Amino acid sequence: MSDEEHHFESKADAGASKTYPQQAGTIRKNGYIVIKNRPCKVVEVSTSKTGKHGHAKCHFVGIDIFNAKKLEDIVPSSHNCDVPHVTRTDYQLIDISEDGFVSLLTENGNTKDDLRLPTDETLLAQIKDGFAEGKDLVVTVMSAMGEEQICALKDIGPK
């Protein structure tokens, strides 16, 4: 046969889907939806009546949960839409590096060092100021579709 060695490097996760299907007519305001391959929070839903050609249509207006861009989509209400699995996790802030990455303490005692500081100016200022003052800070990290971003901050008192 062949005396070559084969090395397979897996870069995938455990095969869990990043989204799940949900009927368009059942998606409500403040829910989540995937528009143009971006996870979005639904801020407006309007439904049109069934026309000459059948389906009632849902018009979704969503705000991208990571970059705050406004996206719109129109889907027949009987069709399925992708809904992202959105999770929020709290981590304790340990350190902020020079290049804008944060070091976070996970629940099992490991560190998570692959997250950047948020782009939101007010949240960024709160994190930097609180850290400079030596406060114990807990950041909330929102993750969806393989992306993660710090979305909230809690002050749990001085160190």
UniProtKB/TrEMBL annotation:
Residues 85-154 form the Translation initiation factor 5A C-terminal domain. It comes from Musa troglodytarum (fe'i banana). Translation factor that promotes translation elongation and termination, particularly upon ribosome stalling at specific amino acid sequence contexts. Binds between the exit (E) and peptidyl (P) site of the ribosome and promotes rescue of stalled ribosome: specifically required for efficient translation of polyproline-containing peptides as well as other motifs that stall the ribosome. Acts as ribosome quality control (RQC) cofactor by joining the RQC complex to facilitate peptidyl transfer during CAT tailing step. This is Eukaryotic translation initiation factor 5A. One of its GO terms (molecular function) is ribosome binding. InterPro entries: IF5A-like, IF5A-like_N, IF5A_C, NA-bd_OB-fold, Rib_uL2_dom2, Trans_elong_IF5A_hypusine_site, Translation_prot_SH3-like_sf. Belongs to the eIF-5A family. eIF-5A seems to be the only eukaryotic protein to have a hypusine residue which is a post-translational modification of a lysine by the addition of a butylamino group. One of its GO terms (biological process) is positive regulation of translational termination. Residues 1-12 have a biased composition (Basic and acidic residues). Keywords: Hypusine, Initiation factor, Protein biosynthesis. Pfam families: eIF-5a, IF5A-like_N. Residues 1-21 are annotated as: Disordered. It comes from the Eukaryota. CDD domains: S1_eIF5A (cd04468).
